[in-house]
Amino acid sequence: MVVAEIGGDAVVVIREYNPKTDIESVEQVERNCEVGPSGEYSLHADLLGDPVCRVRNSPKYLMLVAEIVVTKGGNETREIVGMIRGCIKTVTCGRRINRKTNFTPEPQPVFTKLAYILGLRVSPSHRRMKIGLKLVCRMEDWFRDNGAEYSYIATDAANKPSVNLFTGKCGYSNFRNPSVLVHPVFAHRLRIDKQVAIIKLSLSDAETIYRQRFSTTEFFPRDIDSVLKNNLNLGTFLALPKDCPHARSWGGSELFLSDPPESWAIMSVWNCNDVFKLEVKGASWLKKGFVKTTRLLDQVFPFLNLPSLPKIFNPFGLHLLYGLGGEGQFYLKFANALFSYAHNLAKKEKCGVVATEVSSEDPLKLAIPHWKVLSFADLWCIKRLDEDYSDGYVGDWRKSQPDLSFFLDPREF
Question: What are the entry keywords (predicted)?
Fold first, then answer.
């Protein structure tokens, strides 16, 4: 616990979140804070009664609250005015070449312990009092105590107050600029190329393919097995030519990797729908009516394949696509087929949107259908927590060039 004076009879206390006593106050702070870019519209998240849900599935996590304590005339009042969430995991930060005798040189992953800050909130009435800064500093102390080498945050690039806090006051630097791609789930199903077969993989097959083909990808989680075994993971799907032997008779991942088709793609789906709901607020009745009309027309005339908006002005859920990757000249064609499959799965589960996040240079950015009006540019900022760490094989990760792609971990999206 950290206590700091803020003037008069008031102090701010930074302490661990207590689910038995704090949940109502924390939910009120969430309601008071807009999420996303400011303007006519605001995006609100309903965490379904679990303020820790966005970090709960990480290997190690913590939630802190900022509480104003006022003592006057022997009476004490307490008010929660801010919060922050953080988690720690081990991820790939680079690669090295294995040059053992009698072996063909192969790239091997280099791992680092990475901390992630998300869900920083301060009530509008208590901003500009350095409460956000105090929350970040206390969380970083916990990161260091648990051996994290780097800390990073993800924020909307247009969220200037957040960017200024982390880069201007907390010592973070711009690191990566990925794109969040969002697509509405239509009332009609999307067609899947008839030349493409889609197989749902077992957990062991999915883990084997990810570890053998993607473990050197930046941000790949070393505990990928825990991600795949999580109840929120709806499955891992492999797209490959319908006429290839593996499509006709699946013999397992080892056989597939020993003789893969020329082109293929893989994808996993995470069910955010059971973790939180989103809702767009601030729209006029006219715009709400337009959205309702597009949906109604699509439901009545599904054969026309009309683009329609989901009920985004009511609470809606999403499915997150992660682990998107593959090989071959026609890899993007197979990735597109997987997207259509995921869209249809989301339709069946009554989700409003499907989303993923890719590097700004990743060819998937052009191959995966998305609506620009719903998508946005993300900004990741990073900080090295202790300069005494060994640079090892990678050097200072902050100064590294981004890979063409990265592995999206769905647990903290």
Answer: Acyltransferase, Transferase
Q: Report the alpha-carbon distance of residue 154 to residue 175 in Å, rounded.
A: 10
Q: What's the predicted TM-score (pTM) here?
A: 0.90
CA 386/CA 321 separation, integer angstroms: 34
Closest listed residue to residue 157, CA positions, set 382, 379, 380: 379
CA angle 337, 273, 356 (to 5 degrees): 40
Residue pair 140/386 in contact by the 8 Å Cβ criterion: no
Instruction: Supply the pLDDT for residue 338.
Output: 97
Q: In sequence order, what are the residues at sequence separation of 6 or more whose Cβ sits closer than 8 angstroms to the Cβ of residue 131?
A: 12, 66, 81, 82, 122
Please give the Cα distance from 105 to 96 (Å, whole number). Answer: 10
CA 331 – CA 373 distance, rounded (Å): 27
d(CA 152, CA 189): 38
According to CATH, what is the number of the domain 2-178?
3.40.630.30
pLDDT of residue 140: 97
Distance of CA 222 to the CA centre of its chain: 16
- Which tops the pLDDT comparison, 264 or 2? 264
Q: Can you name the residues that pair with 86 across neighbouring β-strands?
A: 62, 117
In CATH terms, 181-378 corresponds, of 3.30.70.270, 3.10.180.10, 3.40.630.30, 3.30.470.20, to 3.40.630.30
pLDDT of 39 strictly over 50: no
Task: Please write the tens of the pLDDT for every residue from 170-216.
Answer: 999 999 999 999 999 999 999 999 999 999 999 999 999 999 999 99
Q: Which residue has the higher pLDDT, 287 or 60?
A: 60
- ∠ CA 163-165-168, nearest 5°, is 90
User: What would the two tokens of residue 131 be?
Assistant: 């409460």
Q: Residues 321, 267: contact at Cβ < 8 Å?
A: yes
Q: Specify whether the CB–CB gap between 93 and 218 falls below 8 A.
A: yes
> Are domains 2-178 and 181-378 of this chain identical in fold?
yes
CA distances from 259 to 108, 133, 181, 326 (A): 21, 53, 33, 14
Q: Are 96 and 108 in contact (CB under 8 A)?
A: yes
Domain ranges in the chain are 2-178, 181-378
Are residues 411 and 58 in contact, defined by beta-carbon separation less than 8 angstroms?
Answer: yes
Which tokens is 34 given? Answer: 């807009």
User: Strand 318-327 and strand 277-281: pairing?
Assistant: unpaired
Residue 120 has what pLDDT? Answer: 93
